[in-house]
């Protein structure tokens, strides 16, 4: 497993933990990350992902909810919800390339979710890619007789 992938996995596990147990303290989360991640840089990366999601959670949930057709955040599986929050945070708040974010989220969904999780996560995160829907369309092609007037 790639080093940053492991950090994402740990961040996801901590997000899942806090989703199901909102009273867990941040010191406990830091300790759990430190136990699982010995490399200080990877520990920092995992904590930054976790902390970023927690800080922006309301905004992330709103953005996810806006594109998750016929799904309320509260009705999603806890694993899917956590993967989506992590992926949305990386897409919207970091410089990680969108393809990397989505690929990593799909792998996490496959590992921790159910049979439909990967497809669901892919569909939702694809809708959150910044500027995807604001890209200019291809210019119209000139007609067969040599162009327009």
Question: How would you portray this structure in words?
Answer:
The protein is mainly α. The chain contains six helices and no strands. Mean pLDDT is 89; it is low at 134-149.
Structural class: mainly alpha
* Count of individual helical segments: 6
What is the succession of H and E elements? HHHHHH
Specify the helix fraction band.
55-70%
Largest sheet: none
Instruction: Please report the total strand number as a whole number.
Output: 0
Distance between the termini: 58 Å
Radius of gyration: 18 Å
Which strand-content bin applies to the residues? under 5%
Average pLDDT reading: 89
Shape: globular
Query: Unreliable segments (pLDDT under 50, ≥5 consecutive)?
Result: 134-149
Keywords:
149 residues, mainly alpha, 6 helices, 0% strand, disordered C terminus
């Amino acid at each position: 497993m790639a080093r940053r992938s492991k950090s994402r996995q740990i961040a996801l596990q901590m997000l899942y933990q806090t989703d199901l147990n909102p009273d867990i303290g941040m010191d406990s989360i830091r300790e759990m990350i430190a136990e699982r991640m010995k490399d200080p840089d990877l520990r920092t990366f995992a904590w930054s992902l976790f902390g970023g999601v927690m800080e922006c959670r309301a905004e992330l949930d709103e953005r996810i909810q806006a594109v998750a057709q016929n799904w309320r955040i509260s009705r999603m599986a806890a694993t899917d919800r956590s993967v989506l929050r992590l992926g949305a945070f990386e897409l919207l708040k970091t410089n990680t390339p969108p393809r990397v974010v989505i690929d990593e989220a799909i792998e996490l969904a496959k590992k921790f979710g159910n049979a439909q999780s990967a497809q669901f996560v892919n569909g939702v995160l694809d809708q959150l890619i910044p500027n995807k829907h604001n890209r200019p369309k291809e210019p119209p092609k000139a007609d067969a007789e040599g162009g327009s007037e």
